Amino acid sequence: MARVEAPVVATYSIAACDLEAEEWGVAVQSKFLAVGAVVPWAAPHVGAVATQSYANPRYGPDGLDLLGSGLSAQEVVARLTDADEERAKRQLGVVDRHGNTASYTGEECHNWAGGKTGPGYAAQGNILVSEETVLALASTFEQSVGRPLAERLLDCLDAAQAAGGDSRGQQSASLLVVAPGRGYSGLSDSVFDLRVDDAEQPLTELRRLHTLHEELFGRTPDREWVDVDEDLAEELRERLARLGYTGELQQAFDRWAGTENLEERTNGIERIDPVLLERLRAS
């Protein structure tokens, strides 16, 4: 039987971390269906892995296991590729728990292909218009220290696309960021796990999903919450009633917030997150 070639995950990606925020993540864009199901892998206090080109999907979970055992990013790349007979076609980026990084591009990856590493990041791509795409990933990350990791990674993708991107065009994109207990309800490590599987402008759609995720699951600093005095309480009752939520204010408000998937932003009715107040006033 003839050997069937795996599809080429032609893409650009960046695996990165913010040690101070205890966040690790991967952002990726490709002319490939559902790239987020193949390329990005991450675990808090372990590291992040991006596997692409003729992607070996085992590099993700196996790489995280090796990182979890204490190996450095460089050691993980060596261990994975040395054991892989098809390593010449692979591309890989790894960031470990300490922010050490490594990027690997096999000699048979399609041009342009290559990578660049720096403090806390590994950037790589294949079948690109030029090296400028990877350089844009790197420089954008280096110049955005101090901002939230997810926003930095989105900016990296935009800059890489503006620099040329995948020579075949765009199709899908993904953003994965993990941190210990910082996901939904404090019971998940996935801060962001957003995927655009098939779109003409996947980066635009990925931005929209990120904005929506922040609206639904983010949290405004307590100092910015609004005190609910008698006038505001009456306004809330009237607005909720017009939407069909009547009865005791707290219960009506909680029912509305639950319907809108905004319950993560509620905490009683004495004070209100301004994001909820703006959403209710716009309803």
**Fraction in helix:** 25-40%
Please give the domain count: 2
CATH fourth-tier homologous superfamily of the largest domain: Aminohydrolase, N-terminal nucleophile (Ntn) domain
* CATH architecture tag of the largest domain: 4-Layer Sandwich
Summarize model confidence as the mean pLDDT: 95
Q: Total number of β-strand segments?
A: 12
Which class do the helix and strand fractions yield?
A: alpha+beta
First-last Cα distance: 61 Å
Uncertain parts: 1-5
- Beta-strand percent range: 15-25%
Q: Give the strand order, joined by hyphens, for the main sheet.
A: 7-8-1-2-9-10
What's the alpha carbon Rg, rounded to whole Å?
A: 22 Å
CATH class of the largest domain: Alpha Beta
Q: How can the largest sheet be summarized?
A: 6 strands, antiparallel
Order of helices and strands: EEEEHHEEEEHHEEHEHHEH
Using the coordinates shown, work out and report the CATH topology of the largest domain: Glutamine Phosphoribosylpyrophosphate, subunit 1, domain 1
Determine the number of helices (DSSP H or I, runs of at least 4 residues): 8
